[in-house]
C-alpha cells in the first residue's frame, strides 16, 4: 500500500473513531438528562430551562394571516414545532388544541410552527386532529425553527410574558406537562 493510501486510511479511521466517541458522549448525556428518579427510565419530553430573548418569529399563518410573536408580549406563549409527516406531532395535536381552549382565559397562547411542511398537508393534519382553531405559522424551509434552536420535531418552547424563552421540551408534550410548567411559570 502506498504511503498516501496509508495516511488516507488512518484519517478515515481517526474520523470514524471521533464520530463514534462524540455519538457515545451525546447518547450518554441524553440518557442522563432523560432519566427520572433512580429508575433510569427515559421520560419524554426532556425539558431544558432557558432564559434568553425569543428570536424574532413572524410570518404568515397557514390561513395567510400575519403573525408576530412580539404582538403577544404580556402573554405566555407556547410554540410547538410540528409537521404533518411527524407521527408524534399528529398524536400530540389534540392535546395542544384542548389546551389552547383551556388556557385561553389565562392569557396563554398556543401557537404551532409547521416546519418544512406543505401548507395543504399541514392544514389537512389540523382538520384530522380537530386542531383547526390553533394558530399555526408556516415555516416551509425550517429557518424559523432553526432560529429557535430546534433539533427535531416535535419540540416545544415556552415564552414568558416578558418575551424570554424559558423552557425547551424535546419530544411530545402532554396536558400534564403543560399544567405543571405553565403553572410554575405563572407563579414566578
UniProtKB/TrEMBL annotation:
A GO molecular function assigned to this protein is: oxidoreductase activity
Q: Give every Thioredoxin domain span.
A: 48-188
Q: A GO BP term, please? A: cytochrome complex assembly
Q: Which UniProt keywords apply?
A: Cytochrome c-type biogenesis, Disulfide bond, Redox-active center, Signal, Signal-anchor, Transmembrane
Signal sequence span per UniProt? 1-27
* Record's subcellular location: Cell envelope
| This protein's record includes keyword Mitochondrion | no
Q: Name one GO cellular component term.
A: cell envelope
Q: What is this protein called?
A: Thioredoxin domain-containing protein
Q: Which organism is it from?
A: Mycobacterium lehmannii
Amino acid at each position: 500500500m502506498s504511503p498516501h493510501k496509508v495516511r488516507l486510511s488512518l484519517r478515515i479511521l481517526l474520523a470514524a473513531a471521533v464520530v463514534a466517541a462524540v455519538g457515545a458522549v451525546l447518547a450518554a448525556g441524553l440518557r442522563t438528562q432523560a432519566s427520572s428518579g433512580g429508575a433510569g427510565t427515559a421520560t419524554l419530553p426532556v425539558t431544558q430551562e432557558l432564559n434568553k430573548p425569543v428570536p424574532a418569529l413572524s410570518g404568515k399563518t397557514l390561513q395567510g394571516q400575519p403573525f408576530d410573536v412580539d404582538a403577544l408580549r404580556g402573554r405566555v406563549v407556547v410554540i410547538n414545532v410540528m409537521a404533518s409527516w411527524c407521527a408524534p406531532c399528529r398524536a400530540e395535536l389534540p392535546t395542544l388544541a384542548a389546551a389552547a381552549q383551556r388556557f385561553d382565559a389565562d392569557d396563554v397562547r398556543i401557537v404551532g410552527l409547521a416546519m418544512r411542511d406543505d401548507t395543504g398537508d399541514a392544514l389537512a393534519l389540523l382538520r384530522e386532529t380537530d386542531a383547526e382553531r390553533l394558530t399555526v405559522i408556516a415555516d416551509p424551509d425550517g429557518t424559523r425553527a432553526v432560529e429557535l434552536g430546534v433539533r427535531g420535531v416535535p419540540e416545544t418552547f415556552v415564552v414568558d410574558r416578558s418575551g424570554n424563552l424559558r423552557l425547551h421540551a424535546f419530544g411530545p408534550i402532554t396536558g400534564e406537562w403543560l399544567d405543571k410548567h405553565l403553572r410554575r411559570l405563572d407563579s414566578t
